Every structure is written in structure tokens, then in C-alpha cells.
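Could you join me in thinking about how sequence relates to backbone shape in a protein? To get us started, please write out a protein record for me. Would you write everything just below, so we can both look at the same thing?
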Amino acid sequence: DNTPLELVQQEKDGEFTFADENQIPSWVPKSGKIAIRKADLRQGIEPWLTSLFQSEHLSLLTGAGLSTAIEVMATKSAKPVMTKPTLDTVYIDKIVESAQVIASRNKRGDSNIEDYIRIINELLRGLEILGHNASANKEEMAEYEKLNECLNETILKFADSISGIENSIATAVKKDRLEAFGYLVNFLMSFASRTGTRERLNVFTTNYDRLIEAGSELAGLHLLDRFVGTLAPIFRSSRLDVDMHYNPPGIRGEPRYLEGVARFTKLHGSIDWIDTGADIRRIGLPLGSKDIRSFMNAPEIKGADARKIMIYPNAAKDRETTEYPYVELFRDFAAALCRPNSTLVTYGFGFGDDHINRVIRDMLTIPSTHLVVISYDEMDGRIMEKYKEFGRHSQISLIIGNGVADLKTLVDYFLPKPSIDPALIKMSQLLEQRYSIPEPDTTANEDGGES
């Protein structure tokens, strides 16, 4: 379709009408009716996504929308995470003003806790340059220490709120919890089920929680990241093409890709990443743990406080992404996307991060690339704004709205079947060959009619 099609959901569940009757596409059944069902939509959407998912290079980028969808499905509600912190400092007015400037620049409406963390970090660095951290002036020294403590408490509360979401999902009613994780598993496997001749799926997320890791464990999906080790894995800068293969019986020297393996990158860090000074380590924080402090007493990370938790906020400037380890993560992101025959699918991502948008825009300069945007809403109009800004409309597919992009609807109707089943494919081919009804002969006879 040359332009996005706007659908209006009717009161009757599962039926839509076109906002513009002249926009009815060719793939909609020609029944003379404008009202169409999800099954009819599926005839146009599912085959298109299936073909894109088998691109030479496939990447998935998830944002807060995925975590919210799982939380709502499991607990029937969503807890706020990005709420503004309460700060007891003389710099509060300047911090609030600067945080709002950053939010407005990124067109994200009101400022959130990530903006505050960034501003406090920059302010502390400025005070250190001015020497307030070792000043003879007791008031300056006291305000610096108070601001430092505010940052520590803000990050700790932020991390606790993230783990609180994990806890609410992990302790939800069993029926709802199993349903939520079941949809998460099917969602992930729809992307990860790729033929062995294709490159591995690349999964990127801006979330700090571990729901993708939990869903991957349940699905038996192996995630390859930069961490090496077992008890307290260490982040490694060297990016070797480590993969998982198997040797088919009776064949030597020809290992094949093991199915169910994906590369995984958390672009903004995670609540279980700790900066130990010499290394970045991943601690053994169980899903749903309410108190992170009790897991920060291991000898390798002794003395680490909340400020050492590697949860960097999204960057209005590129300062954070030029520092270790984020420079490595974003190098992986750009390398995975900006190459020919690459498809990127975003789900629950609001396009409020300029450093990520820049990589996506550069990807679209390659004609054979494609971007699929799936979102529950328009994110305050940011998605359509980026759609117009990127141009390249023939390289962008949009699935936006609660009637089509709800996680349940998406998995049940539109995402490809989450498996590669050679037996099923072979069966369909045999059925087509043996039991297909031949087309009637429509050649003209001698009387001018049709036989």
C-alpha cells in the first residue's frame, strides 16, 4: 500500500471499517462490504510479515510497551515506573527545568525519572569540576554530598520499581501468569524460528527488566550476549562470532546451526548489571526479587552502591553512549541494522531516543532494508512524525492501534507460526499435488462458447 490505511474499530469486536472508502486495498476480499474481520486482515498482514521475517538479516527492537503488555495481561494493571523523584536539594528548580528541556527536545511530553538521573549526573560532574566535592566551604560540601545521596536514592528506587514489576508478574494469579508468559514465548519464537541458512535473530531492547530473558528460558531459546562466565559473568569487549552448532548423525565436518538461538543486547543496561570498577558483572538476581541490596554483598562487588547499577537513561545527547560499555552495545546495534537485506521490527518502542532513531534512519538509506513498526498507540504522535521524517515510505510498514497491535491479537492473528516444521510443509505440498482440483478449461469451442 502506498499510504497508511486508517481503520476504525466498530463496537462489535473484531470488525473494522475503512476511514476512507477509496482506500480499500486489493488484498481485502471483494465482498462489497467495508466491514472486515481480523481474519480478513490476516490475509494481507501475516504473509507479508512471514516474508519479512525470513529476510537475510532480522532484528527485533522492543521498548517499554512489551513489558507493559505482559504486566497488564498478568496483573490486569500497570504500575508507573518513570514517575518523577522527590529531591531535597537547593538545586531542585534547576534540575526540574533542565529535565523538562530534555524531554521537550525529544518530544516526550513531561520529563521522567531518566531525565532527572541524567541531569543530576551532569550537575554532580560540574560541581566536581568546581571543586565542591573537596571544598573548604562546608555549605558547598554539604550540598554536594546531599545531591550525591539524592542520586543514590533515586536510582535505587528506580531499580526497585523495575524489580517490583517483575515481582507482580512472577506472583500473579497462576492462570493469568501462565497466559502472559505463554504469549511472550509465542511472540519471541515467531521471530526466532528462522531456517538454518539464515543469520541469527538479533534481539535489542531498551528495557531494564528481565522479561525477555525469562520468556526465552521458558521457550528454550538460547540468548548469546557479550557476558562470559557462569557465577558472575563478565562483560567482554571482544565480539567473537560465538555460536551454537550440532553435528548431524553420520556427517562429519559439516556442523549445522542449532535452532532456537538468538543474539541479545540490552542497549540501556539492566538492573542486574553492576559496575565493579574493573569489570561490568551480571549478578544472580532472581526474577521478582524485591530488594536488590541483599544481592550486592558478594566479594566481587563489595562496596558497590546503587550508583553502580548499570541502568543508563536514554540519551538526549550522545554522552552516555560514548562510554563503556554502551559504545560496544550501540556498535552491535548499528552493525546489525545497517547492511543490505536487513529487516527491523519494533514493538512497544516510542521513538523517543535520538541516538537510536539516527541508526534506524541510516539503515533506511540502504534500499533493500525494511522497518516494521508495531505499536499499541501512536506514542503522542511521535511514530507518524518519524514516519514522515524518515521518508522512504515504501520501506516502512506500520501496524498501530489497540485493535491490531495488542499482544494477544498480534500473536493470535498476525505473527507467523512460531516454528519451522518441515513435515508440515511437505504434507501441504503432497496435498497440493495429489488432491488439488484442476482448473476448468475455459478455451473457446467452435460455437464461440467456452468448454
